[in-house]
Design brief:
This protein is mostly beta strands. It is about 5% helix and about 35% strand. It folds into two domains: about 50 residues, no CATH class; about 80 residues, OB fold (Dihydrolipoamide Acetyltransferase, E2P). The protein is built from one helix and eight strands. A hairpin with a 5-residue loop joins strand 1 and strand 2. The C terminus is likely disordered. The chain binds zinc ion.
């Protein structure tokens, strides 16, 4: 263990995803054959194997599907952020991704189907998608568009 965080693969089909994230937009692919959205990026649809797709920009609105609160860091790079929450999040557009829930004082307050909003944070030069509880009418600056 060196304390280094794995650097994401920014080549090929992944390139646009990361460039968009650098520009503070989360994008996903939508199959032009069966219309199913997907993440992470891949060249063929996992449902119908079509290689025809387009990028779509996510609104930033999502909901919490499931989560685990880590009290022990399984990588030295994460030791200073304990406890941290690793969650499965579903974008309102459909794709699911594994992410972190941030800005939660008490993880006991998290609920299934809770409304979340995207937060794009930068760590060591890499843009990272995280989510925080969506508070209706809050004055938070949204990185995604949440209505
Ligand atoms: Zn498809």
């Amino acid at each position: 263990m060196t304390g280094e965080i794995l650097v994401p693969d920014r080549s090929g089909v992944n390139e646009h995803y990361w460039l968009a994230l650098d520009a503070r937009h989360l994008v996903f692919q939508e199959c032009l054959s069966c219309d199913k959205p997907r993440l992470p990026p891949r060249t063929e649809c996992p449902h119908c194997l079509s290689d025809a797709w387009e990028w779509r920009r996510a609104s930033g609105a999502a909901k919490l599907i499931s989560w685990v609160v880590y009290q022990t860091a399984f990588h030295p790079a994460f030791a200073d952020r304990l406890p941290y929450t690793v969650a499965v999040v579903e974008l309102i557009e459909g794709p699911r991704l594994i992410s972190n829930i941030v800005e939660v004082d008490d993880p006991e307050t998290l609920m299934i189907d809770q409304d979340l909003e995207l937060v794009i944070q930068h760590e060591r030069g890499t843009a990272i998608t995280r989510f925080r509880p969506f508070v209706r009418g809050s004055s938070n600056t949204h990185n995604g568009v949440v209505n």
